[in-house]
């Protein structure tokens, strides 16, 4: 179980790797928070307060996407491909959303998935 500080580091720190499950969970959490929080903030503080709150929401989405790029062995510069209208969205869904990350460690960090048990190893009975 992740602590609150570890979750904040995942949402606001672009380094490291993240598995697909945590990526989709983080994206849904950020989008739902923005969806429910923005109208409330706009009602209380006005339209300019929501403009200021867009920055942390967009930053957390960028951090999640860059960590996902790191998991497949690419740098965050590949996110510029999202600027291509339709192909960029399809790339985002196929590669970042559904592609399995690189097995084992890579240049961006440890593998976020736990290692699978090896069923071929037989323990000797003493």
Overall pLDDT metric: 85
Q: Would you count the extended β strands for me?
A: 0
Order of SSEs = HHHH
Poorly predicted runs of 5 or more residues: none
Which structural class do the helices and strands define?
mainly alpha
Largest sheet features: none
**What overall geometry do the principal axes of the alpha carbons give?**
elongated
List keywords for this structure.
126 residues; mainly alpha; 4 helices
Quickly describe the structure.
The chain has 126 residues and is mainly alpha-helical.
What features would you describe in this structure?
The protein has 126 residues and is mostly helical. Helix content is 59%, strand content 0%. The chain has 4 helices and no strands. It has helices at 4-12, 20-45, 47-71, 85-98. It is elongated and about 70 Å long.
């Amino acid at each position: 179980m992740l602590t609150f500080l570890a979750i904040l580091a995942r949402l606001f720190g672009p380094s490291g790797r993240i598995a697909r499950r945590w990526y989709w969970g983080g994206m849904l959490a950020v989008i739902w928070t923005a969806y429910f929080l923005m109208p409330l903030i706009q009602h209380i503080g006005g339209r300019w307060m929501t403009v200021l709150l867009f920055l942390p929401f967009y930053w957390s989405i960028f951090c999640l996407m860059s960590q996902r790029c790191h998991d497949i062995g690419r740098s965050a510069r590949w996110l510029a491909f999202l600027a291509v209208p339709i192909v960029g969205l399809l790339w985002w869904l196929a590669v970042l959303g559904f592609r399995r990350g690189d097995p084992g460690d890579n240049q961006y960090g440890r593998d976020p998935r736990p290692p699978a048990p090896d069923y071929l190893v037989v323990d000797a009975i003493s």
